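Fill-in record for galactosylceramidase.
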Amino acid sequence: MKSAVIFLALFFASGHSIHLSFENKFNSKIRISDESVIKNAASMFYGIGAISGGGATSKLLQNYPQNQRDQILDYLFLPNFGASLHMLKVEIGGDSQSTEGTEASHMHHSWDLNYNRGYEWWLMKEAKKRNPNITLYGLPWAFPGWVGNGTSSPYNYPSLTAKYVLKWVQGAKDYHNLTIDYLGIWNERAYDVEYVRLLRAVLDHAGFKNIRLVVGDGDWGPAHDVLNDPQFAAATFALGAHYPGTLSSNEAKRTGKPLWASEDFSTFNDDIGSGCWARILNRNFVDGGMTSSIAWNLVAAYYDNLPFPRCSLMTANEPWSGHYEVTGPLWMTAHTSQFALPGWYYLPAGGGSGRLPSGGSYVGLTDSNTKQLTIIFETMSHDHSECIRPSLPPYTVKPQNVTIKLAGAFASITQLYYWKSVLSYKKGVSSSYFVKQSPLQVKSGQLTLFLDVDVVVTLSTVATATKGQRSQPPPSKPFPLPYSDNFQ
């Protein structure tokens, strides 16, 4: 068994420092430099989110009995209770099949306008009801044919497309009192430089300067234009990539823009799916500098015989019985979301976050005043944390002791709250998720922690976390047949 020493070292504006190093009993040493905490947009934590859409993934949720429906929504959105999500990303319905089904557009035709179609308006309001600070992100997966004026591309008539998106934003505000924080361009399709510039101008002119554009929602390709087109760079707030495999491109890093995994996970929500999500939540930052990770999808409220069944934080696809399942990925989310808030900062990779010497990773986060500290460790093994995409190169993880040395701004910390998940892949042995442990005492700025394989640990000064629990959901039942419906 290896023993590692972590000495957290960071320079703050106040002159405090936190050094980080590793040392094992074989006298191999890894030292991480005492880099400064860079408090800018690229290192700020923008939160953990999940997606409703792409498409019709939340379809059955609204049909649940109110009691169970409210419980499900509490598990997803209520602060310090369950997933406690910081961000909700929704599909801007486009009247087209977009994975699990079709979501209705607010404008079937150029002369049509209806802000009561679908369920994303309702879902955003329910999220805001539980967490007024949750941020909202809209993205089209498809567009009605009229937007392209009969062509196959919404970019052929960019003014028409920008107006269509603007109408959705205005409807959110005027009819539902919802403020949209972020907009994407077109899910996993080519972006268009002229359209991005124009959309920015249209939003600004209409009084929506607060809305930030996340460009890409595919790969890191837009980074090239950000580096070479000042107007496009000014219009782009963040670069968003899907399923980046915890890596970002060199060009993307050079832009200085926030980098997001704007869609990730998409893995069956069993223990392996939990391991996948735990691993990438840490390593998206450690390996790729990504400061927000957004899971597809929020809740599997669609039937199991559709594509990508149960690739979600939890499952709710039996409204007739009221049965739902709170699954592991939801508690993996809580290991970060209940201990850090948007506006905090990641401690830099190589200066407060990084890879563990015997496998696994850790990330450190601190608030803007460097008064609070959260460290999340994960030691997920390769075979127990493979996501559905992309392929995962082989690696090994071994049990290890980690000695943590706190210095500088954190030297006065005497106790860290301790939460732990242990994933078991042995037959007959259940995993334990998000279990509160006795607080760890810090003596002279130092403590030692044993990390086995396939565990997630959060150490934090934040005392407000809880493992929320509502009443037991009703048992699962088959769909009630015979069944009839007049579709009204």
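KEY FINDING: The two ends are 65 Å apart (CA to CA).
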